[in-house]
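Hey, quick one: can you model this chain's 3D structure?
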Amino acid sequence: MWALTLVLLIIYIPLFALLIGYGVNLYFMIIITLWRRKRLKALPITNLPMVTVQVPLFNERYVSQRVIDAVVALDYPGDKLQIQILDDSTDDTREIVAAQVAAWQARGVRIEHIHRTDRRGYKAGALAAAMPQVEGEFIAIFDADFLPSPDFLMETLPLLLNDPKAAFVQARWEHLNLNASWLTRLQAVAIDSHFMIEQYARSRGGFAFNFNGTAGIWRRSAIIDAGGWKDHTLTEDLDLSYRAWLRGWHGLYRDDVASPAELPPTMTAFRRQQERWQRGSIECARLLLPDIWRSRYPLLAKIQATIHLLGPLVTPTMAFLMISYPFLNELVRRVPGLIMPLSLIDYIGPVTIAPTLFFIMSQVLVGRRHWRAFAAVVLCQVIGAGMAMNTLRAVIKAVLGQRGEFLRTPKWGSAGTQRSTYRLRADMGVVADLMWGVYCLLLVVIGLMNGHTFIAVYGVMSWFGSWWVAFWTVYPDLQAMFRSKSATTA
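Sure thing. Here's the predicted structure for all 490 residues.
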């Protein structure tokens, strides 16, 4: 009994401290954001350098034409602009891109269609393979669903020219389909909080922050100095950003320059995206944290980098504490002297408010102050709790060092989720979601019986969130099945 008690305490208290530290850090991010509200101003430049624009894509038949048209429309001298469409497609996207590129080439635009016959290294591999053909001193990168404004280069490039140690400039993401559904609205809340507070605070606070893979411009020499694009993680952008930081470079962020993009409109696509991001972050942590802690950066910068890379551990940590709660509660009943660990639950309240304030503040800063935005804030936290099993699976794979395939998030453009040939099907993760929901219902009862309101409330959030996630994961498959049966009987 005492051995089990000791093990639980050794695990329980540090994890509890981790959650409290994460919550306190959110308050810290908010304070920095409000304290240092100073926007970067781009000084005018006269001698414009050569710039390369890269658009990596894979099977994007619904959005490839519009992104090509968008990058061609960038306001920059044609003789100093090189455009590369890095196409790994295996479907008719290749023909669509080839036709669109040929049409613009006929009008005198300097644009290339670079198609690979294999997808080695995925997005990182495509970017690395194209480097020998890059002519620009600076490289702007846009994913297939992004639509940069014509002034994007003139708003971001001067910052790099005026700061020789700046590796990249990251712009804020906006949302093309913000009001498409409840799912896109809650995703917008999460992304807004990342860009309006987290990225802003890290950049203005002098901490490491990352290029987000798109809607940014890099200094080519910084990419080369950091070791180039590598495919050893699923988040090549995060990996390169930190390797550049360890080499003495830093990034710049402009929250007033926005590039709109498409949010995943289905739960299956959203789950895939989140799993890749979270898994990639932990992979970067495994690879980079030893070097970060050996670096000469200040202690606070190292702590912030650690919190950043280990962020995906928060949800699994909460899940573990929920799982261990009944066992610890039973131990306390048998060994009354162990009441201290459980009493910590009574002090977590102020910390749990931090994410709510974090999300609300982002909506205020971005200018969305209507009731829909605040309803999305609540739902965002419920769905976040409900995604526990999805996150846990991603973290376990990363910790075990399993090599993962880069599964891109499909884009639908104006095709609609039902007419799209890229529709994803539900997997067995739904079963884990449903089982987790049942367990959380049990925790609600136990928490109420023992006077632990926080456990009961979080249990309700996790139960509803996990079943809600499971339902909307299988719902498109059920719709397709019923339509197929109706078509057969008609």
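One thing worth noting: Residues 273 and 408 are 7 Å apart (CA to CA).
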